[in-house]
């Protein structure tokens, strides 16, 4: 895993993708998928969000593959992907002739999807790190691999920590359960983490 600011890593991955690096594009997709899905939540009743996400990824790959095009500014690829996703969703609404069921004026007046990361809670981060640090060796190795390189397929992660895929997945489940139990003992409910 490359260290540093995750937003810098995101943009660095997209720049590598613009030179034809498919693995870098896969890494970029892994980092933007969650923000894209969150930005499309308001369209979920009108369109298939999965279709919109996949179409966005396709358009972003085509954009990255065109040497004549470039993006500039802070979080440029993420901001552009959010705008593309919004447009794809609006196109899907129009193509499905759902305009009469969806208040398009209100949808179109909404600001483009954005993803501003919430400021981390240092106490929560410390509690999570402590709970992960207390895990038994094998669950710790599996979870640490998933956290550090979660954009990679589980099969590769398992190979990297020298586990069979099934063993790796069992250790992930065990690690999550143990971390949740550890956090509950500290008064942190899982729902608080996911918000």
- The count of helical stretches stands at 10
Radius of gyration (Å): 19 Å
Characterize the biggest β-sheet: none
Q: Given the C-alpha coordinates, what overall shape results?
A: globular
The sequence of SSEs as H and E is HHHHHHHHHH
> Mind telling me which CATH architecture of the largest domain this is?
Orthogonal Bundle
Distance between the termini: 26 Å
**Beta-sheet strand percentage?**
under 5%
Return residue spans where pLDDT drops below 50 for at least 5 consecutive residues: 98-105, 107-119
Q: Please, what is the average pLDDT?
A: 80
Structural class based on helices, strands and sheet pairing: mainly alpha
- Per DSSP E runs of 2 or more residues, the count of β-strands stands at 0
User: What's the CATH C level of the largest domain?
Assistant: Mainly Alpha
Assign the CATH topology of the largest domain.
Rna Polymerase Sigma Factor, Chain: A
Q: Into which percent range does the helicity of residues fall?
A: 55-70%
How many structural domains are formed by the residues? 2
Précis, in short:
The protein is built from ten helices and no strands. The protein is an all-alpha fold.
Q: Would you kindly provide a written description of the structure presented here, covering whatever features stand out?
A:
- The protein has 195 residues and is mostly helical.
- The protein has two domains: 6-109, Rna Polymerase Sigma Factor, Chain: A, CATH 1.10.1740; 122-194, Winged helix-like DNA-binding domain superfamily/Winged helix DNA-binding domain (Arc Repressor Mutant, subunit A), CATH 1.10.10.
- Helix content is 67%, strand content 0%.
- The chain has ten helices and no strands.
- Helix 2 (22-39) crosses helix 4 and helix 6 (122-133) crosses helix 9.
- The longest helix has 21 residues, at 165-185.
- The protein is globular and about 50 Å long.
- Residues 98-105 and 107-119 have low confidence and may be disordered.
């Amino acid at each position: 895993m490359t260290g540093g600011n995750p937003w810098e890593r995101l943009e660095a991955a997209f720049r590598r993708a613009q030179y034809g690096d498919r693995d870098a594009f896969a890494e970029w997709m892994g980092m933007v998928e969650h923000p894209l899905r969150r930005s499309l939540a308001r369209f979920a009743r009108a369109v298939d969000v999965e279709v919109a996400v996949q179409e966005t990824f396709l358009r972003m790959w085509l954009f990255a593959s065109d040497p004549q095009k470039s993006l500039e500014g802070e979080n440029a690829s993420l901001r552009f992907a959010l705008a593309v996703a919004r447009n794809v969703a609006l196109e899907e609404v129009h193509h499905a002739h759902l305009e009469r069921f969806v208040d398009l004026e209100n949808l179109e007046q909404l600001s483009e999807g954005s993803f501003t990361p919430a400021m981390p809670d240092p106490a929560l981060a410390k509690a999570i790190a402590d709970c992960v640090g207390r895990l038994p060796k094998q669950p710790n190795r599996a979870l640490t691999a998933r956290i550090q390189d979660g954009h990679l397929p589980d099969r590769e992660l398992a190979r990297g920590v020298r586990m069979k895929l099934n063993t790796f997945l069992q250790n992930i489940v065990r690690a999550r359960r143990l971390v949740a139990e550890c956090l509950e003992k500290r008064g942190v409910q899982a729902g608080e983490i996911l918000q």
